[in-house]
Prior knowledge:
It is a single chain. This protein has helices at residues 32-40, 54-57, 89-100, 102-105, 112-119, and strands spanning 4-10, 16-22, 47-52, 64-69, 74-81. The chain has one domain (4-119). Strands 1-2-3-4-5 form a five-stranded mixed beta sheet, with helices on both faces. The model has no long low-confidence stretch (mean pLDDT 94). It is α+β, with helices and mostly antiparallel strands.
Amino acid sequence: MKEYDIKIFQNKNNETQYIVFSTSFMSPLDSLRKIEEELSTQINGEKEIIFDLLLSNGNNSNRYGKAVYDGQKFKFRSFEIVNTPKGSDLRKFSTQYYKEHIEFINNSILSSAQKYLITNGICI
């Protein structure tokens, strides 16, 4: 199983955003080279990529991050934490994703209460 899964999200401005989800307690940031290779088949040019690190970091202030991908690799100086308010469209999209992939949630650092909320579609 890969340590990540890449999905496309349409934000409220109808812009296409790429989100890299963690698929276990292992951080997808450990697989940046593989992610770059996969993105190179989907993206031509510069694009901001969002990382949802819920399963590896928990529901903390460092859950979401972003980085600029230049079409071949990430610009390492562009990595930063993203403040994503509860109830945002991104969090709702993430909750729906994890609700549909319960097998990932079971292999995470999340508490039983957090797992329960997500499997019932409640945004955390």
